Amino acid sequence: MLGLKLPTDPRWVNIVEKNIEDILTDHAYCEQKAASTAISLIVSFPEYTELVQEMIDLVEEEMSHFKMVHDRILENGWTLGRDRKDDYVIALIKFFPKGGSRTTQLVHRLLYAALIEARSCERFRLLSEELEDQKLAKFYRKLMISEAGHYTMFLNFARKYGDRKEVDEKWEALLNHEAGIMKDLGNRETIHG
Ligand SMILES: [Fe+2]
Ligand SMILES: [Fe+2]
C-alpha cells in the first residue's frame, strides 16, 4: 500500500533493539523535522489555503509525537541528545532539479514529504511487529497508523495541485531513487538510514 520498492531488512530491528536510546533520539528529531516541514510549507505556499489548514493540524500532531518520544526518553532516565544529520533525507531531496514554477516546487516538496512519511510508516510497522518490548511495540503501532495518514495526505495534495499524470510519473521515479538510497543505507540505528 505504501508503494516502496525495497522493504526494510527485518534484521534492522535487531540493530535498533541494541540501541534504543539512539533510535529514540533520532526519532524525536524526525517528529520535530516533520513539524518544521509543515511550518515551512505554510510560509512558502500561503495561498494554498487547504494545504495551510492541513499543515496547521499537522504541526500540532507532529509536535505531540515529538512529546510522546521525548517522554519515553525521560521515562528511561535519559536526556534528549543532539540532532545528527540525516543522510537519508539529504540524499533523497537531491532528486528533483531545483527551480521550476511554484507549483512544480510545491509538488516536489509534497512528494518528498510523502515518501519520508511512507518510509517512516513502514519502519514503525516493522518495529510494532518485531520488537520484543511489547510496550514499545504498541507505541510504534499507534504512530504507524498516523504516519500512514500523512503519507496519503501529502501524495493526494501533490496529485491535486500538480498534473496528475506527471505527478504519478515523478512519484514512481522518486520511489526508485529512494530504493537505491535504502540499499546503501538501511542498516543503521536511525529511523531512515
Ligand atoms: Fe509523526
Ligand atoms: Fe508524519
From TrEMBL:
<dbReference type="InterPro" id="IPR009078">
    <property type="entry name" value="Ferritin-like_SF"/>
</dbReference>
<dbReference type="Pfam" id="PF06175">
    <property type="entry name" value="MiaE"/>
</dbReference>
<dbReference type="InterPro" id="IPR010386">
    <property type="entry name" value="tRNA-Hydrxlase_MiaE"/>
</dbReference>
<protein>
    <submittedName>
        <fullName>tRNA-(Ms[2]io[6]A)-hydroxylase</fullName>
    </submittedName>
</protein>
<dbReference type="InterPro" id="IPR012347">
    <property type="entry name" value="Ferritin-like"/>
</dbReference>
